[in-house]
Amino acid sequence: MLPDPPYTENELLLRIANSDEKAFAGFIGLHWKNIYGLALAWLKSVEEAEELAQDVFVKLWKSRDKLPELRDVKDYLFIIARNSFVSRIRLKLQDPDFVENQQEENHYWRPDRIMENKEAYAILLEGIALLPPKRQQIFRMSRLEGMTYPEIARQLDMNKDTVKQYIAKATVFLKAHMKERMPEQWALLIAFAEFF
């Protein structure tokens, strides 16, 4: 929430540079969605995207003394996010299991496997449609729209833990549904791991 009265972005940056935590919280509120969306597009994982977005704002806070000198705060946030992403990928590339999993995953996106992927996605959507209405709504908001649990909880006026329970139950059902409908291609579903 932004401090009262409303401030221009430059005034907000000055307040943050002076360690005003309320101004910083307001700043995060203004920019969270963009950074989180970018991280989600890069990482394809809700949890990792949340972590990366948090890292961006922690780094911004730690270097808050530089904020008054910024000409374009959005560019600055993008650079921090990009550098955090690159660092994260470099670490992952040092892990032999990660490299092997990526090679396996790339196998599923070869042209000769695209039809299988489309079929699996259609079955996933079919499974989502079979969920009870509230569970379906929450799952779609989380996995298809990229909303965080706190965002969903706020929008639906629910407890964050309740949102987690809905997602967990939906995930259990969808895994069983996919396995039942595509038993011979169960390994293919690795390509859809981000939904689970």
UniProtKB/TrEMBL annotation:
Is this entry keyworded Transcription? yes
GO molecular-function term, one example from the UniProt record: DNA binding
Q: What protein name is recorded for this chain?
A: RNA polymerase sigma-70 factor (ECF subfamily)
Q: What organism, scientifically named, is this protein from?
A: Pseudobacter ginsenosidimutans
Per UniProt, residues of the RNA polymerase sigma factor 70 region 4 type domain are 123-170
Could you provide one GO biological process annotation from this protein's UniProt record? DNA-templated transcription initiation
Q: Which family does it belong to?
A: Belongs to the sigma-70 factor family. ECF subfamily.
Q: Where are the transmembrane segments?
A: none
